């Protein structure tokens, strides 16, 4: 019993006994169990967060797809509206040009009619003037006196 190894063994056994008596192995086990439970809880929470993130990602992808479809519909509707407005504007311009052309043609026809009327009037005035000049020159002299006398006698007959 005198060896040093023996006393080290005895001290070691006593030390282990004191540790067991004080419940150190239970405390260590409990601490390890708590640590394992905490790690498990963190893993569960991480898994739940990952699932929620996946769900949110899928939801946002769906919303993005829906927004893309709506944007395409809006663009298609805007194109259709623009084409319709362009067609309406073209039709209105064509109608305006046709109306203006018709008005111009009517003004031209009226101007032509007025010019023809003025030419006829001028021709009639010239003819009357020429006839008056001819009659005036022929009515002077003996024929004029005879015509005057005949006219005067007709006037007296009609007045009486």
Automatic annotation (TrEMBL):
Q: Which GO terms describe its molecular function?
A: proton-transporting ATP synthase activity, rotational mechanism; proton-transporting ATPase activity, rotational mechanism
Q: Which Pfam families does the record match to this protein? A: ATP-synt_B
Q: Which domain of life is it from?
A: Bacteria
Subcellular compartments: Cell inner membrane; Cell membrane
Q: Can you list the GO cellular component terms from the UniProt entry?
A: plasma membrane; proton-transporting ATP synthase complex
Q: Which residues cross the membrane?
A: 6-24
Q: How does it sit in the membrane?
A: Single-pass membrane protein
> Any coiled-coil ranges, and where?
29-99
Main localisation: membrane
Keywords from UniProt, A to Z, are:
ATP synthesis, Cell membrane, CF(0), Coiled coil, Hydrogen ion transport, Ion transport, Membrane, Transmembrane, Transmembrane helix, Transport
Question: What task does this protein carry out?
Answer: F(1)F(0) ATP synthase produces ATP from ADP in the presence of a proton or sodium gradient. F-type ATPases consist of two structural domains, F(1) containing the extramembraneous catalytic core and F(0) containing the membrane proton channel, linked together by a central stalk and a peripheral stalk. During catalysis, ATP synthesis in the catalytic domain of F(1) is coupled via a rotary mechanism of the central stalk subunits to proton translocation.
Belongs to which family?
Belongs to the ATPase B chain family.
Assembly and oligomerization: F-type ATPases have 2 components, F(1) - the catalytic core - and F(0) - the membrane proton channel. F(1) has five subunits: alpha(3), beta(3), gamma(1), delta(1), epsilon(1). F(0) has three main subunits: a(1), b(2) and c(10-14). The alpha and beta chains form an alternating ring which encloses part of the gamma chain. F(1) is attached to F(0) by a central stalk formed by the gamma and epsilon chains, while a peripheral stalk is formed by the delta and b chains.
Give the protein name, as stated in the record.
Answer: ATP synthase subunit b
The top of its lineage is: Bacteria, Pseudomonadati, Pseudomonadota, Alphaproteobacteria, Hyphomicrobiales
């Amino acid at each position: 019993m005198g060896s040093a190894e023996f006393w080290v063994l005895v001290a070691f056994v006593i030390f282990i006994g004191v540790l067991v008596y004080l419940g150190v192995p239970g405390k260590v086990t409990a601490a390890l169990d708590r640590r394992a439970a905490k790690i498990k809880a963190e893993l569960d929470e991480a898994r739940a967060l990952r699932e929620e993130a996946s769900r949110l990602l899928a939801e946002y992808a769906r919303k993005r797809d829906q927004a893309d479809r709506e944007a395409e519909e809006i663009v298609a509707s805007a194109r259709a509206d623009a084409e319709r407005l362009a067609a309406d504007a073209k039709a209105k311009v064509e109608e305006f040009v046709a109306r203006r052309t018709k008005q111009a043609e009517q003004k031209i026809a009226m101007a032509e009619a007025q010019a023809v009327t003025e030419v006829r009037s001028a021709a009639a005035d010239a003819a009357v003037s020429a006839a008056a000049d001819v009659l005036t020159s022929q009515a002077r002299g003996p024929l004029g006196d005879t015509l005057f006398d005949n006219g005067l006698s007709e006037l007296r007959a009609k007045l009486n």
